[in-house]
Amino acid sequence: MTPAMIPSLRARDYLSEVKPIWCPGCGHFGVLSALTKALAYLERPKHEIAVVSGIGCSSRLPAYLDCYGFHGLHGRALPLATGLKAARPDLTVIAAGGDGDGFSIGGNHFLHACRRDIDLCYIVMDNAVYGMTKGQASPTTPPDWTQSALTPHGTGIPAFRPAAIALASGASFIARGFSGDPHGLSELIARAILHPGFAFVHVLSPCRTYRPDDQSSWKQAVHPFGEHLLSATETPINAAQGSTPALQIQDDGLGLGILYDVPRGPVSNNATLGTSPDRAAALDAIEAELEA
Amino acid sequence: MVWLSGDQQSITVAISGSGGSGALTAGFILLAAAQRCGLYGLMMRSAGPQVRGGESVSILRLGPSPVTNIGDRVDLLAALDWRNIERFHDELALDNSSLVLHDSSAGAVPDSILASAAEQRQIDFSRHAAEHSDGRANMIAVGVLGGEIGLPLPALADAAETLLGKKAAATVEAAKACIATGYRGTVAQRETRADGETLAQRETAAPAFSDSPRRWRISGNAAAGLGALRAEVGFVAAYPITPASEMLEWLAPRIERAGGTLLQAEDELAAVNMLVGASFGGVPALTATSGPGLSLMTEGIGLAIASETPILVVDVARGGPSTGLPTKSEQADLNQALYGLHGDAPHLVLAPLDVGDCAYSVEWASRLAERLQTAAILLSDQALGQTHAVIDPPPRCPPVLGRKRIYAASAQDSAQDSAQHAEQPSAPDSPARTSTQTPADSIARYAPSPDGISPMPSPGEPGYAYTAEGLAHNAKGTPSSSAADHRDQLSKLAHKLKAHDYGDGWARIDRGRATKHATVSADKPIAADQPAPATISLLTWGSSWGAVQEAANRLREQGLQVQTIGLRLLAPLQQEALRAAIEGTRVLVIEVNAGAQLFRYLNAERVLPLSARSFARPGPLPLRPFEVIAQLQDQLNLSPQAQDSGSKHSHKDSHKDSRESVATASQKGARR
Fold first, then answer.
1. Which residue of chain B comes nearest to A279, CA vs CA?
2. From B458, which residue of chain A is nearest by alpha-carbon distance?
3. What is the ipTM of this complex?
4. Could you say which of A69, A83, A282 has the minimum Cβ distance to residue B278?
5. How far is B223 from chain A (nearest CA, A)?
6. Which pLDDT belongs to residue B303?
7. Helix crossing, B137-149 with B23-36: angle to 10°?
8. Between A and B, how many CB-CB pairs are < 8 A?
9. Does the domain spanning B507-666 belong to CATH 3.40.50.920?
10. Phi and psi at residue A188, in whole multiples of 5°?
11. What homologous superfamily is domain B3-214 in, according to CATH?
12. Could you say which residues of chain B have pLDDT below 50?
């Protein structure tokens, strides 16, 4: 079948028949909608897409899509997606999850996925709370939030700053979207998928059940980010080292848009991607060397 | 010490020295020289934890027949210096028949060496080395030891050239000059001794050095890597850990040549999840680690099992618990491999039986995991992984059907692939999709089937998209907490492993002829051409196999009907076949761990008779044949002379009296 003969898909064609378990009004519905819009816009065939997630409310996402998916372990979406992309560079691989999954239990993988800069799109639906385990503080929760029985005096520790940490860790694309703006978010996701490196999309996605008071104001508070943090002419490593303080000053955490977008760094990932198709001949040669 | 002109079947040589002295390099050159003369051999190394500047010992055993273990004792020690030699006292196993060559400038002989009553001889290793520009004492030692062992000088020189080939030409030439000096000095010295030979006699007695096809010189870790390539593993992700790293370092450049990918992960949690991702993508995947890493990987292994995504984890075990003994061996991870996962998570556990078997077992484990869509844990250990051996090329594993696919197109691809690589044991198994079948018919990823295995599509195949799931799920893969779905899927996971026909690779059973694979299985009782039925079974696994084999050979020479059983497939346990194999025999279960882990497992599975006994001791010392014989007589009370056992003796045997007791077999006395 030639490309011209493939009927173009609508956003809803990317949805599966499985009904989301999310609460009414959950921000994640907007993310699901934005993602399907982006995939339809990019005209990616459904079977060439794999969406990999961890555990949590937002990590239920893959089952709601009619694409290949993997609902894996808590915190391990990025390594699973990395293994898949390294083994199957032909696929469009998207990792998705929440703030606890990505920044707490999976925090180390987040740092190293940014460093590795492999061609993944990583969507984090940040509601600053653990919803599935019923309302505990997450890494992005403000230190004085006292609504969790587990931390009645608040966590007392500063919130994790995902965009700054991604930048410092070497990510080559950083964007922030809002689930209440699915159209704008779909454009950010589409650009992230097109970016040939690690593309981090930080999505403010309110939890109506455990953070109804704090996050209802997001709709009014979000604003366009303004201009890119750094020009694309700087090398990512130097830029990251030199500009992290600027990000801290300029970023109030609510600015939407593409925060950072540079060509993938000159340092390739540490995968050794072989090219020899003649496996049997290679094996024979390797065995012969054992006689030396 | 002219072993080749006597009737000695092997010789064990040790080289010790402080960091930078080149004791390991010297050992590697001697092993390569033996390889060049058509000999077999193996070399263990023992080292302290220091990264640089630590002491190390290489221990080699060489002989004209396959060398399966390090033996009972050390015949010959070359001490380049005495620094911290007491750390290796237990490994060195010197006795009053041993010969110790030590550098004259190294100072007083330590008490631990004097206590062994070994014969001592001063050799001017350093002074002779100083006679050559860039000369090194370890190369003088290579020459001296080569001369003592009876290896021809050209073989030593060629081995040095190959192993030092990346160094500067002057360094290589200096090494060869030193080797020649040491070699000629040894022979000249012998001429002044009462038992001396002439140089001409020595040259005649030495085995021929030729360019004829050679055996392989390979470590267990490299052999495991080779098994991965043979299994067509296309993706490796791992985090460095002793003593598994060499397997990864061996694989890194070679998997690239074979068209695969190797990725260094940020930790073991990442590594195992990367495997799951790659395997989900249709590429066979493997990692290598050791105990602490296996602990971190267990959650990911459970995910592979629950989501039915094949992976292989090679555990090159070291002493435990916790950080334990990073550089030394123990067979103490069996419980973890069998029981370490939460929930009911049936999976494969295998263990290689010797250095070459690492290739066979890794290939088989990977292919079984692929076929059965499950996780396999392979238990190698430091004693196998870091031992370098000269061996006959190991066989390929038995044929195993490949991953069950959906597409007819995949079947055609696989068939072409098999036709191109006729030696590959995998075969396609893809039911052709008929024209009446629609994608919807086959979309239930976890659908029940008679063999418990559901076809597994890979991303990129249109019409079969599914979400792999670590939550309890229904046949379609949709999360489900229903009791019926849980029961059905658990039953499927267990059934597919149980229903598979593992053939005769599950164990090695040796009743006294040439070792071969088990001929006993549930549907294939003992073949008629077997030797007389055994009365004693020595049952073991993993790296203990070699010493147990040698113990059995000595016992047979005493007229005992002994069979050895080395379990390669530990889970699922082949109960019926194992029961049939040990029926009517007295059983001793042998393993190197403190907890008798195999013995307890076999008892839990109710395969052992009540009379079965256990010999389990902790590592890190390698198992030696005399220990097995002594335990056999103590535990099975086979001899009235049991109280006489316990001292270390050579395996060398000049007695052939079949009426001798077991005790005599363990007491095989002085070599000379």
1. B258
2. A68
3. 0.93
4. A83
5. 10
6. 98
7. 40
8. 209
9. yes
10. -60, -40
11. Pyruvate-ferredoxin oxidoreductase, PFOR, domain III (3.40.920.10)
12. 1-2, 4-6, 194, 196, 198, 408-441, 514-526, 528, 640-672
